[in-house]
Each structure stands twice: as C-alpha cells, then as structure tokens.
Amino acid sequence: MGVTDKDGHLTYVNESLARALGYSKDEMIGMHVTDFLYEKDMIKSFYIRNKDLIKNGQFSFETSFRTKDGNKIYGEEKVVAVYGNNGEFVGARGVFRDITQRKQVELALRKREAELDIKNKTLEEMNAALRVLLKKRDEDKGELERKVVLNIKELVMPVLEKLKKSKLDNTQRAYLDVLKLNLNDITSSFYYGLSSKNLELTPTEIQVANLIRRGESTKEIARLLDCTMRAISFHRENIRKKLGINNKKTNLRTYLISHS
To answer: Residue 39 above 70 pLDDT?
Structure first.
C-alpha cells in the first residue's frame, strides 16, 4: 500500500510495496509515483487518471512498473482519493498487487498464438503454392500423355499398317500384331490402371491381362507372345492372385473388363 500527497509524491509506503519494487521504505518517501512507471508514455496517462480520481474518487488500472534495479514487473493498482476536512482533495491511497507471473503467462500465450498464426499463414501459403504446382504438374503430365498418344497414332501406327501390307511371314506378322497391341496398351487407360494400382504385375502379366480382356484365348495369347500355353496359364494364375480373386469363382476377363 502507498499514500501520496495531492501532487503524487509518496508520503507513506508499506513493507510489501517497497519489497516488490526493490526499495527500502525510506528511499521511496518523497518519490513521485511516475518514477516507478516502466513505460514513460504512461506518465501522460497518469495525469489523465489523476483528474478522474479527483472527479470520481477512485480508479483501478494495470500497468508495468520499474524496480530499483531496472527490471519490469506488472501490477494492479486500486486507488481511492483522500479528502480534507473541507472536502478538498489532499492525496490518494493505493493498494498494489503484483501480477507479474500472470502477465508473463498471458504474454507468453500471446507470443505463442502470434507464432502459430504466422506458421498457419505460412502453411496456407505453402499449401496454395503446392496446389498450384500439383495442378501444373498434372496439366503438364496430361499434355505429355496427349502428345505421346497423338504421336503414336499419327506417326507410328500408319507405318505399322503399311508394314502389315508388305510381304511378311507368319512369325513376323505375329510380332507385328503384338507390337500394335502393346502400343495400344500404352495409350489405353487400362494399361495405366494396371500399372498404377501397386499390383506388382510384371510387364508380361500386363500384356497377358490386356489380351485376356480383349477376348483372346490362351492358345492365341501363346502364339502372339511366342511362348507356351503352359506359361500363359501360369501368368493367368499369377494375375488372379495379385488381383485377389484366385480363390473366387470370378471370370478373369469379366473382372478385367469391369475394372477397365
């Protein structure tokens, strides 16, 4: 607690207030209350509050105070006016409560909130930039795929058609058919679907699966791929296992068509 005259000079302080500010009681007597304000721009505010005190008889406020060794503490002050026998204003009496710990927690929380806001804004900006990059990547990927498909259809396929009309033996014609099928696979959504589902199908299994989907028999697939029917049956079984239908009465061709 502290008592001031009408001009704001201390005439009395108790031990608790002196200890909080790091002074002895004798050192504080005669000092002006603004000597203890940490923020000097609070001095103007003090005089405004002093006028309110004279008019209204009391006021409360929270502010920062400077201790004798220069440290900042926070305090809550409740001040009431003291009047003389004739009703004139003669000073004030204030009760001080140290709220430094509470204020430090509040300031730490505000700082943390500000840091989180900055991080959130940064993340939002990064996410926005990432979305733009991903969109651009997808657009570039789509454009590249379109160019590949267009080049195969306009540049490669016509040559293969001309080659097919030339003098080829049965083996060469079979290889040509396989080449055309493989090129069609590359440009089909079915090929991309099988190769992107993490099924771990081998390139040969993807070829076999595509030929099964087209309705080719085991014998015809063996002829086109130049291997035995037993090898094709083995590939069929592996495909069923990897698709998770090896123990089911599911027609493989029907399954492949439905997942095209």
So the answer is: yes
- Taking the CA atoms of the chain, what radius of gyration do you get in angstroms? 44
What is the pTM assigned to this prediction? Answer: 0.42
Contacts of 259 (CB under 8 A, 6+ apart): 193
Question: Cβ distance 25 to 10 under 8 Å?
Answer: no
Q: Contact, 63 vs 78, CB < 8 A?
A: no
Q: Which residues contact 32 (CB under 8 A, 6 or more apart)?
A: 7, 8, 9, 10
Separation of first and last alpha carbons in the chain: 85
Collapse the DSSP code of 2 into the 3-class scheme (helix H, G, I; strand E, B; otherwise coil) and give the result: strand
Mark 16-44 as b/e (b = at least 16 C-beta within 10 Å): ebbebbebeeeebeebebeebbbeeeeee
* DSSP state, residue 165: T
CB 174 within 8 A of CB 223: yes
Tell me the sheet residues that pair with 66. Answer: 72
